[in-house]
Amino acid sequence: MLTHRAIWAAIDGLAERYGLTASGLARKAGLDPTTFNRSKRVSRDGKQRWPSTESISKVIEATGASVPEFMSLLGDGTPMASAHRIPLIGLAQAGNAGYFDDAGFPTGEGWEKVPFPQIDDPQAYALEISGDSMLPVYRDGDIVIVSPAANVRRGDRVIAKTVQGEVLCKILARRTLTRIELSSFNPAYPDRSFDVPDIAWIARIVWAAQ
User: Which residue of 48, 107, 141, 164 has the fewest C-beta atoms within 10 A of its own C-beta?
Assistant: First the structure.
């Protein structure tokens, strides 16, 4: 049975999965930032307020999630209840040979394993942030979950690897047939621009543990 508690828990779970607050999810979907506030889920007279199907559609589209992914969060109202173990390495190590195949999927030995709630991509992996180049979004020691199979669109937070072996955590600002432009989180670090052949692969960050 689809309950009021379950549907709101699924929205909270989707926000958490993509490293957002409820208000951040609303903004990303082009909605009023207060749309998903807890104070708006029940009216003053105690009547339950349900999110509209249009709002749900917008958050699914904004995050790049699938409908089955959203439905999987309904369950008993507890988001992301099941967990499995995914591979983890440090971002500073990721440029070394032997950790990824040519398509950007994790491979080889040397990965640790960490428990993480079930996500749709069985090839998802975790990277531990190091340094201050991703401030103020990601701090040293934060864990980001990367999905090689996820669609990557303009404005997404991504991990990109150059053919020279450099691994970058950036924002995809623009991608054309010939150029890829990556914006930095920290304004103290320069934005980067590459010819398409200079980028080995790009994968989307789908969640962050901070």
Answer: 164
Domain final residue pick, 19, 50, 72: 72
Q: What is the pLDDT of residues 110-120, one digit of tens each?
A: 888 776 655 66
pTM over 0.85: no
Please count the CA atoms within 13 angstroms of the CA of 64 that sit on its side-chain side: 19
Residues 173, 191 contacting (CB under 8 angstroms): yes
CA distance 68 to 82: 15
How many domains, the chain? Answer: 2
- Torsion angle in degrees (nearest 10) through CA of 166, 172, 173, 178: 70
The interaxial angle of helices 53-63 and 4-17, nearest 10 deg, is 20
CATH of the domain at 182: 2.10.109.10
For residue 171, give every residue at least 6 positions away whose Cβ sits within 8 Å of its Cβ, in sequence order, or none.
155, 156, 157, 158, 182, 183, 184, 185
